[in-house]
Amino acid sequence: MQASTPNDPKILIALDFADQQQAMALIAQLDPASCRLKVGKEMFTLFGPEFVRTLVKAGFDVFLDLKFHDIPNTVAKAVAAAAELGVWMVNVHASGGLRMMTAAREALLPYGEQAPLLIAVTVLTSMTDDELAQVGVLRSPAEQVLALARLTRDAGLDGVVCSAQEASLLKAELGHHFKLITPGIRPAGSDAGDQRRIMTPEQALAAGSDYLVIGRPITQAANPAQALADINNSLRQG
Ligand SMILES: O=c1ccn([C@@H]2O[C@H](COP(=O)(O)O)[C@@H](O)[C@H]2O)c(=O)[nH]1
């Protein structure tokens, strides 16, 4: 799967904007050496693949966070379409199962070294024990994350999306090379919003997160470029 850029920025900024010009104004202040960008359902639905191509052309590593969850054939075709866009990372839902994830991985084989990293979402960082129970999952979030991460590893994917609260458990159980991408990152004192299983950037890195997904604490800051620089500095010091 695709190699990381040499300096390997840890922060993936979640671009969740309804206005493309606002997103572009932020991106104009960013350096691809200090962050990567995440495009999710809102911006992809509004602005489509052309927006992703623009970011790739501007030199950014792009995580296309569309969380595919469908029958194996459909998901395989969707991840191949993502590879055609030149993205750095793409994801599926682990709860789609082993056969679906295997089909997704096999669809990327023709891309060789150029293939995006392929990861799977375990349990959304907004979810609590009670909410898992409401959808029929009686395990704790950590138990469910571990079970889905094992399934993801068995399908040969590169890693998972989980909360940083589960990072040390997953690193111990699945090893150093299995990548952990953790949203639900909140610098000390910032608003959790709809997130529930949260950690600070410094705690998350120390717990074993490979990449930190950070949206609103950067994008809604008075000075987003400074907010990014502050977090990068505190991670370097840690
Ligand atoms: O479990 C998950 C999976 C994906 N996300 C996405 O990450 C960002 C987080 O944004 P914040 O503003 O920092 O809360 C957002 O795009 C989610 O769709 C997640 O939060 N949790």
UniProtKB/TrEMBL annotation:
Keyword ATP-binding carried by entry: no
UniProt xrefs under PROSITE patterns: OMPDECASE
Enzyme Commission number(s) of this protein: 4.1.1.23
Residues forming the catalytic site: 67
Entries under InterPro entries matching the protein: Aldolase_TIM, OMPdecase, OMPdecase_AS, OMPdecase_bac, OMPdeCOase_dom, RibuloseP-bd_barrel
Substrates-to-products reaction catalysed: orotidine 5'-phosphate + H(+) = UMP + CO2
Name listed for the protein in its UniProt record: Orotidine 5'-phosphate decarboxylase
Origin species: Oceanisphaera ostreae
